[in-house]
Amino acid sequence: MTFAITDSIIQEHNQPRVKALSEDYEHLALQLGRRNIDAEALVTRAMDFRVAVPSWGVGAGGTRFGRFGFTGEPRNIFEKLEDCEAVFRLVRVTPGISLHIPWDRPESSPALRAFAEGRGLHFDSMNSNTFQDQPGQKHSYQFGSLSHVDADVRRQAIDHNLECMEIGQQLGARSHTVWIGDGGNFPGQLHFRSALERYLSSMREIYAALPERWRLFIEHKLYEPAFYATVLNDWGTSYYCARELGPRAWSLVDLGHHAPNINIELVVSRLIQFGKLGGFHFNDSQYGDDDLDAGSIKPFQLFLIFNELVDAALSHVEGFDPSFMLDQSHNVTDPIESLAASGVELTRAYVQAHLVDRAALADCQQRNDALLALQTLKQAFTTDVSPILAMSRLRAGGAIDPIAMYRASGYRRRKAAERPAAIRLGAGIV
Ligand SMILES: [Mn+2]
To answer: How far is the CA of 418 from the centre of ligand 1 (A)?
Structure first.
């Protein structure tokens, strides 16, 4: 029997903290009451929030320069799911797992599905990988995959995506996410229009094989590994492709995949308006695709993104049902702590976005009162909703203070004993 963070360990942690939390919560509820906001309704919202964690996120991340492993690191997909379960038990908003093929290809899909479901977890989105070469692979992706000039390479990349969806069906997943590293490093290397045409033609085959009720997510990225031009470079190209493919193809926004000064909340709003916002890969960045923890660098931007999402949900935009996932690279922290903290930060932005006085904001916009419009948003953003988040975790069976609870449990120390070190190589960023 392996060590797990059980309900009784969590209750033991929560018990001495309940009184102070109740006092803080009641005080906040009183303050919000004066603004005609029902704190209880926000606790319910927080309890209903969901964000999937990536199977690769619980291992040590990496950069182009290397990868630092840690003791107690999961050595296979089952141990990764154990760690995902720990994150879920702490914060209770992360039951979904996004699985990467081939990094986490299961030997037996039914066995893996049973293992996950026995821990209250389920599989969310599948992720293909045609940006690396795997041992024994016939054709190389050095010069592209779905958009490669050679039809045999495209065939191999398409078949890989079809295999991902087949595995996903056995696991009970409901969507497939495609990110390609295709692009060029030199002017003249790519014929831009032909490369995009070849990509679309490959994607049409993948779309045609999409299982019933599944959604296909298209992830764009400005640069890297191609440093001159990528085939799926921005949200406009992603939107065009999603529209060309059909109603079950959607654009996916990874917060790290834009130019530094891009207004991402505006991108989000455009995709909502055009009916193609499929989902998110949440992370944060200072320079480029840094894959830092969500909300760690630009929490106001995260809030403004959720402001657009909540506005769309509250105004019942047709077909609006975005899927949320974390996509981070943990290089200097324990991934369980980073994922738990990120789950909390996303829930925070989601709850704060519900504090926006939308009637007052609309009135400011109508009267061109720019200053008061910003203050209306800032009033929501500067409200500390931590007691609401902690109360929602407590009621859902999670930890009042997830990081303190996790550290006190000695989880990683126990795992270090259970999981003798294995040599692992390779980075883990998409
Ligand atoms: Mn991503």
So the answer is: 31
Q: How far is the CA of 292 from the centre of ligand 1 (A)?
A: 12
Ligand 1 mean position to 4 CA, how many Å?
A: 29
Dig out the tokens for 289 from the structure: 């695709």
- Dist. CA 285 → ligand 1 center (Å): 12
Q: Which residues contact 24 (CB under 8 A, 6 or more apart)?
A: 386, 387, 390
Q: Which is nearest to 424 in space by CA: 74, 65, 58, 2?
A: 74
Q: How far is the CA of 280 from the centre of ligand 1 (A)?
A: 8
Interval between CA 126 and ligand 1 midpoint (Å):
12
pLDDT in tens, 124-170: 999 999 999 999 999 999 999 999 999 999 999 999 999 999 999 99
Lay out the sheet containing 323-326: strands in order across.
53-54, 96-100, 122-127, 175-178, 215-219, 249-254, 277-282, 323-326
CA atoms of 207 and 302, how far apart (whole Å): 31
CA of 69 to the centre of ligand 1 (A): 21
Distance in Å, CA 6 to ligand 1 centroid = 31
Residue 1 has a pLDDT of 83
Asked if the model's pLDDT at residue 112 lies above 70, the reply is yes
- Interstrand relation of 122-127 and 175-178 (parallel, antiparallel or unpaired): parallel
Weakest-pLDDT range from 173-177, 214-218, 396-400, 417-421:
417-421
- How do residues 24-38 score in pLDDT, each as one tens digit? 999 999 999 999 999
